[in-house]
Every structure is written in structure tokens, then in C-alpha cells.
Amino acid sequence: xxxxxxxxxxxxxxxxxxxxxxxxxxxxxxxxxxxxxxxxxxxxxxxxxxxxxxxxxxxxxxxxxxxxxxxxxxxxxxxxxxxxxxxxxxxxxxxxxxxxxxxxxxxxxxxxxxxxxxxxxxxxxxxxxxxxxxxxxxxxxxxxxxxxxxxxxxxxxxxxxxxxxxxxxxxxxxxxxxxxxxxxxxxxxxxxxxxx
Length: 196
Known about the structure:
196 residues; mainly alpha; two-stranded antiparallel sheet
């Protein structure tokens, strides 16, 4: 578009401005080429890595998100459960307690802002589709959308997507976690049906 604009307005632009615009256009094309090659590299890595493939099965997680999470948390051994990962990412509300009454404040925004932003944008992209599904997550989302601001719903869905922890765990640890959750009367973790 810029080359066409420069051709059509040849009498309006000085030679100096034309050269500057041509240089900027060349730099932009080079930058786009580099970004495309990096995206291709991330996609190829994610295609060949088992952890990335499991992460990409989560709605809203693509190859860029998957490779970033694998690079940052590897197999998530440092987290005992998904809630710990959500807290580490800063996706849970801070609490203030006075007089024995806890008040939930805004999200804590701890740790890496880049990693926190990824599940939030992924949740924002996946939310319309998930809200239409006839699953437990879909009904939970519809109820939450009816009573809360859309941005609050997106962050809550992103925190729920801390299922990343469960997907990265070895199968035996996931089975132990499922048994522990089901034994305590909580809902069963259903990996095959999207975010629980």
C-alpha cells in the first residue's frame, strides 16, 4: 500500500521524504520476514514437542503460548496444583482481611507479565466458543457472564485454564491428583472436555 501511495503522490513528496519512506518500507518488510521465520520456528518446535502438543489441546493455547509456557515452567514440577500456577502467574485476586471478613481485590499481577497476558488473551479468544458449548465450563461461563464484567470473566477463565499444570504433569501424578480430588467430594477433572 505504501509503494502505491508513494507512486500516486510523486509530485507531493520531496526526494528526501521518498527515500526515507522507501527505507522504512524495506525495514518493515525485513521485520515482517524475521517475525514470520520466528513464528515458523516456534510452530515447528511445538509440533515436535510432546508437552507443547498437550498444551495446544487447551482452548486458547496456540504454539506461541505453548512454547513460552514450556520454556518458563517446563513440566510444572514446582507447582502442587493448578491453583498454585494461577497464583504464580498473578491470575488470582489479592485478599484483604479486616475484622475476619475477607475482601477480594484486583488480580495480584505477580511474576512475568508476558506469561500472564498469554492465557488472558487465549481466554478472551476462546470465551465466545466455550460459552456456547453444553459443558460444565460453558454453563459456568454463561452464569458468570450474566453477573460480572467481561474482563473479570476473561481473567477467571484464564485462571481456570491453569489446567496447564495438569496437562504438563506425568500421567501417574495426574491420576493421583484426580483420585485425590474425587475422593474429597470435588468434581472430577475432565481433560477431554476442555477446561474443567
